Amino acid sequence: MNIVNGSYYHVFNRSNAQETVFRTEENYGFFLKKYRAMLDDYVDTIAYCLMPTHFHFLIRGKEKCDNVGMMFGKLLSSYTRALNRAVERSGSLFQQHTKALLIDDERYLIAVIAYIHDNPVRAKLVVKPHEWKFSSYQDYVGLRNGTLPQKDLVQAYFPTVEEFRHFSEQVHHQPEKYWR
After folding, report:
1. 30-44, 54-68, 163-177: which range is least confident on average?
2. How far is Cα 86 from Cα 175, in angstroms, rounded to an integer?
3. Average pLDDT in the 167-173 region?
4. Tell me, what's the pLDDT at 51?
5. Is the pLDDT of residue 178 over 60?
6. What is the second-level CATH architecture of the domain 8-177?
């Protein structure tokens, strides 16, 4: 994974064989805490969503971002070891390669934020994105005062929360309009 300073990337990975990665609320919190401890020095996190079998992050590389791929590998290995101990399982949990797609267009960048937040709706885990606790959407719409997302980017495009919510719903109902 090659991350460039100042560039945006959609980073994601999923479990092997659709195995549940996050089994409890504590698992989600533990993963995010480890993510922040291991990656905050290397990337700005713009948006995220943790799903039962996979995760999505929208990140921007910081000045010393040359170790991001290695740090994601350490994060996944560390989380896997902890989960393996907790549930008495063994073996790898995540697919071997974490994907990082370069986002080089502003319109696409904003659509990726909506796409990431829409994951639990598309998976029919919730009806509306604000109902899913394990994403940055609640931070963007003012339901939680988290520190992870860099909200200034979205606020530059959407002066109000309602405009952002409306856009997110449009991406859900007409995704082909926003994807390359």
Report:
1. 163-177
2. 39
3. 72
4. 97
5. no
6. 2-Layer Sandwich (3.30)
Side by side, the strands of the sheet bearing 54-61 are 43-50, 54-61, 8-14, 99-103
The Cα 33–Cα 5 span in angstroms is 23
Mark 160-170 as b/e (b = at least 16 C-beta within 10 Å). Answer: eeeebbebbee
Closest by Cα among 43, 26, 179, 168 to 98 = 43
Residue 118 has a pLDDT of 92
Q: Is 13 helix (H, G, I), strand (E, B) or coil?
A: strand
21-45 confidence digits (pLDDT tens): 999 999 999 999 999 999 999 999 9
Q: How far apart are the first and last CA of the chain?
A: 22
Q: Look up residue 122 and give its two tokens.
A: 């598309």
Q: So where are the chain's domains?
A: 8-177
The helix (run of H) or strand (run of E) holding residue 140 is: helix 137-140
Write out 47-92 in H/E/C secondary structure.
Answer: EEEECCCEEEEEEEECCCCCCHHHHHHHHHHHHHHHHHHHHCCCCC
**Global confidence as pTM:** 0.90
More confident residue, 44 or 175: 44
From the list 76, 71, 72, 44, the residue with the least C-alpha distance to 58 is 44
